[in-house]
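Throughout our pipeline, every protein is held as a single compact record rather than as scattered files. Nothing more is needed to write down the fold, since each code stands for a local backbone conformation. The record that follows is passed on verbatim for readers who wish to inspect the format.
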Amino acid sequence: MANILIIEDEAGISSFVAKGLRAAGHVPTIATTGEEGLSHALTGGYDLIILDIGLPDIDGFGVLERMRGQGVATPVIILTARSSVGDTVQGLESGADDYMPKPFRFEELLARVRLRLRPEAPAGAVTTHLQVGDLIMDLPKHQVTLAGRQIDLSAREFSLLEAFMTHADQVLSREQLLDRVWGYDFDPNSNVVDVYVRYLRRKIGPGWITTLRNLGYRFGEPRGDGRKA
């Protein structure tokens, strides 16, 4: 779990990012102006900062330069609609650790968040591998193996499997999975979860994912007990 500061003046984007980070186990704080964000950042109480450039007072470059000038070394991911080479270079030269243009996919942002948190986190605080039985997920390499055999997954399938493996033997509702893997974009009545569960079952085999009527799904090592495939 990490404390993450979001400096973003667009309410729709900040709430979307905060919701996704919360679902991933992090604690987000939102600041809507450069001055407010800088005030938060200078406390040193954050593990990572997600920073917009087009803020209503100080722009993100100014916030970043003042942070670095006052010795704040917190990793910063710039998230902005400005995607020119010049803006990217200015952001990185001002001390940003990463630069991500809008529009963006949350799963990609989350992967970058994990990457930037990893060097700064205390030893053992960041999980790099998940394992349930002989199914192993290597998060940094974005790879999954089953009994030593590599399983090719799309980015969304990987995120869904990560959600399941992180909560092995727990019941996850469709709404929880929508929130964690797809974010705010999808209708709660969508069958997209069921579709991707079928994709996963085809790739990792029957028995891993149990459907619980009116409740959702439970993931766990197959036990040969007739679990629904």
Summary: Confidence is low (pLDDT under 50) at residues 119-125, 225-229. The domain at 3-117 is CATH 3.40.50.2300 (Rossmann fold). The chain has two domains: 3-117, 129-219. DSSP finds eight helices and twelve strands in the chain.
